[in-house]
Amino acid sequence: MTTETNESMPINIGISADDRKKIAHGLSGLLADSYTLYLMTHNFHWNVTGPQFNGLHQMFMTQYTEQWNALDMIAERIRALGHPAPGTYKAFIQLASIAEVEGVPKSNDMVRHLVTAHEAAARTARKMFPLVDAADDQPTADLLTQRIEVHEKTAWMLRSLLE
Fold this sequence. Notes:
InterPro entries: DPS_DNA-bd, DPS_DNA-bd_CS, Ferritin-like, Ferritin-like_SF, Ferritin_DPS_dom. By secondary structure, the protein is mainly α. Helices cover about 70% and strands about 0% of the residues.
């Protein structure tokens, strides 16, 4: 993650190598959180039971599909900044701020875990703004804004199920 991918042709996009490295590292944390959230949501989709089964099963499928598509956008931004994207469980565990859930929780606990995880992903994205703004990196800022919006809206919708 710390080595640029093409040293024979330096990247000259108006963002310093040091800033690109720091931004790529931050995005790697977001990618790890996003992958962990994707896997959690897919697991819950497979294992949800109870009176809310159909609604949650469908909702979780919509959510994990959105997460899956986001993974590519985040990884490709890391690559565009000249760094390899992490792609192993070992790397994701080291980088993620979201903990894995043990066992199969009850449906309301699944919803609570997902609210917490979406909020964590939003915090991971939000904490990158000072660096991204200082580096004048609008594409990453746009990506972060999109991800925060999705995570905050999804957390709100999930939280509404618990009222």
